[in-house]
Amino acid sequence: MDQSTQGLQTTIRPRLLVVAARHGLAQYERDRSLARVLGLPIGQPLPCPGAALTILTRREAELDHARRHHDAAWHPGEHVMVMTALLHEARLGRADPARTVA
Fold first, then answer.
1. Chain segment 47-72, per-residue pLDDT in tens
2. Is residue 89 part of a domain?
3. What is the largest CA-CA distance in the chain?
4. Is 7 part of any domain?
5. Who contacts 85 (Cβ-Cβ below 8 Å, separation ≥6)?
6. Is residue 3 domain-resident?
7. How many domains, the chain?
8. Distance between CA atoms of residues 16 and 89, nearest Å
9. Quick one: pLDDT at residue 4?
10. What is the chain's alpha carbon radius of gyration, rounded to the nearest angstrom?
11. Would residue 32 count as lying in a domain?
């Protein structure tokens, strides 16, 4: 288990946020959803799961900071999308550790 996956297991988030993200996994399509969450231009290749996990972990920490500080710029839907992508990338990395490095 790498450091970012280990950090995921110790992360404390509101139950509703985590449950919503888990439900989002059923309809998550990496090619479409990850590009949108990361803000990648059309046609740009997606990062490997390990790199995506690092980017998503940073982005989720920023969103959580905004949530905890009642920042008006925080959007729950965006936070759920990032958490869903984060959970998917973590599962993808665990399922095929060779794909996490590219």
1. 999 999 999 999 999 999 999 999 99
2. yes
3. 40
4. no
5. 28, 33, 34, 37, 52, 56
6. no
7. 1
8. 20
9. 47
10. 13
11. yes
**How far apart are the C-alpha atoms of 102 and 92, rounded to whole Å?**
14
- The residue range of the domain holding 59 is 13-100
Can you read off the two tokens belonging to residue 60? 């989720």
Tell me the DSSP string of 24-75: HGGG--HHHHHHHHHTPPTTPPPPPHHHHHHHHHHHHHHHHHHHHTT-TT--
Secondary element (H or E) of residue 1 = none
Closest CA to 86 of 66, 56, 64, 65: 56
pTM above 0.90? no
**Does residue 3 sit in helix, strand or coil?**
helix
- In angstroms, the CA 99 to CA 49 distance is 7
Q: From CA 7, how far away is CA 9, in angstroms rounded?
A: 5
Residues of the chain with pLDDT under 70: 1-11, 94-102
